[in-house]
Amino acid sequence: MLLPDRQTNQHRSSHNSARFLDDVSADSSAEFPDRVSMMEVRLQAQEDEITLLKSSLADALRRIRIHDQLLPLLKQQLISIRSALSCSFLTLYLGRGTSCSFLSNSVSSHSFPPCCCLCIPGQSIKMFIRGRPITMYVPSNIQNYEDLKMEPPSERLDLDWVYGYRGRDCRANLYFLPTGEAVYFIACVIVLYHINNRTQRHYRKHTDCVRCLTLHPDKVRVASGQTAGVDKDGKPLQPCVHIWDSTTLVTLQQIGLGAFQRGVGSVAFSFADSGAFLCVIDDSNEHMLSVWDCTKGTKHAEIKSTNEAVFAVEFNPSDSTNIITCGKSHVYFWTLNGGQFTKKQGIFGKYKKPKFIQCFVFSLTGDVLTGDSEGNILTWGKSAADVKTLGKGAKETFQIMRQTRAHEGSVFTLWTLHGGGLLSGGGKDRKIIRWSADLAPERECEIPEKYGAVRTIADVDEEELLVGTTRNAILRGTFSDGFVAIVQGHVDEMWGLATHPSQNIFFTCGHDRQVCLWNTEEHKLDWCITLEEYGLCADFCPSGSVVSVGLSTGRWMVLDLLTREVVSESTDGNEQLSVMRYSPDGSFLAVGSHDNFIYIYNVTESGRRYIRFGKCNGHSSFITHLDWSKDGKYIMSNSGDYEILYWDIAAGCKLLRNRYESKDREWASYTCVLGFHVMGVWLEGSDGTDINALCRSHDERMVAVADDFCKVHLFQYPCPKPKAPSHKYEGHGSHVTNVCFTHSDSHLLSMGGKDTCILQWKVFGAGDSRERLASASVSSTSTSSPEPVTS
């Protein structure tokens, strides 16, 4: 659930921060414990306990009021039944953790005349989260709760499209295949995108975020490494490298399971022996350098490389016994002989030693060319040892033969062309420069500022290039015609997601201050604008012409979809907004805030004019989710302390003290994570923040759930019993922050948090599976993953 306060940040950071720390600072930041931070943790724990006590007190007072209101009603029921027998209260406890209690006012069958029903209105169930009881009333149409059977839905999901690219913090992760496909990764998915046909295939065997990628000399096999990550219990998962066939998407070899620490940072195939060996650098403190037999999957040699960050590794293309690594303040030349490594450090001599050696390539003449953080391309070669400097008996060394000024800021990438030329990509200047074989500049161009710096380059042919950028875009173009984006995505954590009420488009917003409109049919970004503050929630007006966006400062605005102009804006409080929701007919807008209030607005002129109608005051914590009733008169809301409250909007935003009266109310949408109809989506032992979002389909047959463990679940709807079975889907590499069905329920969209990835899933029923399997061989979105596990 959406909890951007300190409590939730501590919960999520322990689960996700290891995946996204910068390589340069990851080691130093974790070495020395800070007593101040430890005291802050203890203080926060005490504050959490106080908050829980306050909410428990508020809940007790509310229960007393409800009890006082129910007494006359119970007396009337007893008189109408005309039974002298007393009611017995039966409490059933199902399981523990998400233990659910029934409080059913049930009477023995001998107590009633033959015409009376055994289930008297008033049956309730208690669900406990973090020790707090949450009472839910059973709807009247359920006669015997115990006899309800929970089955997984007949519908299933199939990954249809992946939006985004991880260029922000990864290197050398874009290649062009002979099949006409660009291969790159984001989150746990490796995408093969046909740049002309605009279709995707997906390799999905990784269990956590993919960190690196390399292409075999045969241009068919691919090696990819992943980070370690943790499971839902906080236990570390073992990283590994997969070698797989890019044509069939079949895994050929799994390398090093259990041999690497934290994750795999860099991989490279050997060239001189046709790719017989694979070199791997892991993310341990010592950045272990290891060489593996690709066919057998066995380790050939291993050595500690350095305690500094390592950015790249490659075999010498003409000699597989020579390996080079580079990174922070170093470039190392390794020789492998008889299973043992020897190392020589590159000597900078009279040249200024850069802080980072960002990348390197081999020229056709065998020289090594490095790009560094000073903007220079350095040419390295062997030379006789300087006896005066290194002493008598010193052997040959690797020294700088030439320094070429290339870019302003860092040189992030180098790429050799077939004719001996060279391409370089700059950071600060965002330039791509083509160099001759003797490093004379020939052509250059500058990519637009909105795409960021050049992260990596791959050539399609001698003229056309693919460019990965630091703002998670992939560009396609030439020096003559310029470059256009073929892949785009967010660059920071995302939370806001909304689908259009009648068109195949959806809207996203996040911490990068970008608000984006996407097309699910054409699989592209329609438009994107940047705001002054970051967005956290959004919703389309039922008219379909405008979309409202809730921001981090309490301000919200309404955008026209065609003109992209702000047609209305307002501010409610000074805390972040967590939910925007229009009533079914579009006459009201509800704005849920972290100041514990729900602000209600009258909406006119097809969503272009807003007048404050009232304010819902009654929650003891921040608002997390809310839904309107189908008649547009009532609201159901959840809060950060696990409250479920109901509001009569037509009566002036009045809090309904008697929640029993809302048990049969029908809801236009169902996104509240707490409620009788979705109680079964909570796993045993859940702490209340494990589910961030859920969404009921428009046909009310299924409910999709976004959890904190990188999973998307699909349950049947309603789902009112604990431990309900579901279909479970993987692909995200971070907590899944939101899910939403398209207007026709043909697709489901899921949004990752830190992984900046949007996954589009196709929904298919039991009758569609045979047709889907028959067309899998020609499907543009077929994957190598097995059917999801039913949990």
Automatic annotation (TrEMBL):
Keywords: Cell cycle, Cell division, Coiled coil, Cytoplasm, Cytoskeleton, Membrane, Microtubule, Mitosis, Repeat, Transmembrane, Transmembrane helix, WD repeat. Residues 199-477 form the EML-like first beta-propeller domain. Coiled coil: none annotated. Belongs to the WD repeat EMAP family. Its main location: cytoplasm. It holds the Pfam family Beta-prop_EML. SUPFAM superfamilies: Quinoprotein alcohol dehydrogenase-like, WD40 repeat-like. The keyword Cell division applies. It is found in: Cytoplasm, Cytoskeleton, Spindle; Midbody. CDD domains: TD_EMAP3. The gene is EML3. One of its GO terms (molecular function) is microtubule binding. WD repeats lie at residues 487-521, 616-657. One of its GO terms (biological process) is cell division. The chain crosses the membrane at residues 174-195. This is HELP domain-containing protein. GO terms for cellular component: microtubule; midbody; mitotic spindle. It comes from Amphiprion ocellaris (Clown anemonefish). Residues 494-763 form the EML-like second beta-propeller domain. The lineage of its organism: Eukaryota, Metazoa, Chordata, Craniata, Vertebrata.
